[in-house]
Amino acid sequence: MKNRPLAVSLGDPAGVGPEIVVKAWSALRHTGPPFLVVGDLNQVIAAPGGASGLVRRISTAEDAARTFPQALPVIDIPLLEPVVAGVPSPRAAKAVIAWIETAVGLALSGAVGGVVTAPIAKESLYGAGFPFPGHTEFLGELTLSHRYDGARGPVMMLAAPGLRVSLVTVHTPLAEVPGSLTVEKIVNAGLVTAQALRRDFGVEHPRLAVAGLNPHAGEGGTIGREEVQVVSPAVRALRDLGVNAMGPSPADSLFHEAARAKYDAVLCLYHDQALIPVKMLDFWGGVNITLGLPIVRTSPDHGTAFDIAGRGQARPDSMIAAIRMAQDIALHRL
Fold this sequence. Notes:
By secondary structure, the protein is an alpha/beta fold. It has two domains: 1-147 and 293-334, 3-Layer(aba) Sandwich (Isopropylmalate Dehydrogenase), CATH 3.40.718; 150-292, Isopropylmalate Dehydrogenase (3-Layer(aba) Sandwich). The chain is built from twelve helices and twelve strands. Strands 3-4-2-1-5-12-11-6-7-10-8-9 form a twelve-stranded mixed sheet, with helices on both faces. The radius of gyration is 20 Å and the shape is globular. The N and C termini lie close together (8 Å).
């Protein structure tokens, strides 16, 4: 079980996914963790550094560990037509979706230890009728019938050295966030986060900080009522359920070094409240983790970067960090 490879879905083939996957293999081929790629073999070969002699088609996950030190193993699911680096196309959407579904299927079957997803372009997928806001929601649907331990995921977490943040709302327009927040949503995200800290990160007694929505966490209701009416009741409910939760705390004082020593994760209420501090701490190495799934899933904390795709300029730091973190979580779950 410890030697199972990870499965990396190739992401949007016109983005930097193929390049950072190849570069991650170059960095990890002698040390591991081993992984296989689910994607179009020719796109991997065409990526900077992906020469044909360094890429090999495989049939099963069992072939990956043997192949990995010599060549990047690929389960080849071809595109219907070639794509050009830097030029996104909805015509690639069916293959991109199939790559994700195949990687998830391998994880659900136990053939691989987890899934790492290269970045996708949601607009291209939407053009092909993709009904989900992003990877996270799609993975939740694909694993819905396989949930473990009453998990209520998916919940998005971003992690960098010294900081983990989970999100209550993700791709919700900022103007709609206050109306989207409920006690139930905050409690659910807090429970999933606390469960993941124990199960996936080995934190025996998780400490959870809950951010406020308004400046100064509302100052007792004088700068907004959401903390009084929604966030504080949610924190009390989490405590009643056995979670060591504190807050709501002013977001502007939650992320400096001394504050970070007092918790194991922050529950953030909207997208930028969570992502800005992570990217300030480690722009290149942040990792996106989906909590509350029966499988391990991580991803680089960046997008497709069409503007530099195919030029050999993409940095693989976040992909390497995502692969290593997926392996660490998988080992915690053994």
